[in-house]
């Protein structure tokens, strides 16, 4: 199970105690925010996109939406979400628990600037009822992010 991979990964970093598991689902931004008692924006959702024969991940704030033009400008391709039936095979985590930790080799992770508004964020931890509490610098470090990108909309003051 993917959460076991994530737990082992964080145990290697001495941070296994940071993983939170719930008795309820946290498979969506709204459910995760409800389980945590926080605003949906603080949930760091991990989105998987088709990239040739593989995929890439973008971690964004829970209230952000992918901007197709920005995505194309950044990655040189259309933003096409991974088909449901390919998510686990390509990423290593099932839908509802997709996170940027302990992913399959060769899956690049990018962090969206929408997250930079927060000191603490809550990405999933490999299952549909888990999360991990991280600072932005911890998220950057433990996700192995390639870089920060600006591919989302709907979260900036001027866009609301």
Automatic annotation (TrEMBL):
CDD domains per UniProt: ProX_deacylase (cd04333)
InterPro entries hit by this protein: YbaK/aa-tRNA-synt-asso_dom_sf, YbaK/aa-tRNA-synth-assoc-dom
Pfam families named among the record's database cross-references: tRNA_edit (PF04073)
Taxonomy, superkingdom: Bacteria
GO MF entry, a single one: aminoacyl-tRNA deacylase activity
Domain YbaK/aminoacyl-tRNA synthetase-associated: 27-142
UniProt protein name: YbaK/EbsC family protein
């Amino acid at each position: 199970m993917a959460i076991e991979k994530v737990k082992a990964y964080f145990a290697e970093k001495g941070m296994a105690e940071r993983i939170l598991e719930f008795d309820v689902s946290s498979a969506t931004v709204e459910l995760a925010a409800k389980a945590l008692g926080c605003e949906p924006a603080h949930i760091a959702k991990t989105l998987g996109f088709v990239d040739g024969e593989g995929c890439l991940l973008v971690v964004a704030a829970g209230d952000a939406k992918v901007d197709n033009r920005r995505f194309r400008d950044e990655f040189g391709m259309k933003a096409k979400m991974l088909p449901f039936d390919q998510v686990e095979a390509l990423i290593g985590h099932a839908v509802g628990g997709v996170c940027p930790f302990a992913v399959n080799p060769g899956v690049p992770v990018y962090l969206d600037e929408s997250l930079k508004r927060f000191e603490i964020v809550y990405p999933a931890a490999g299952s549909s009822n888990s999360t991990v509490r991280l600072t932005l610098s911890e998220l950057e470090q433990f996700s192995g992010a390639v870089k920060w990108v600006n591919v989302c909309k709907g979260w900036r003051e001027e866009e609301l």
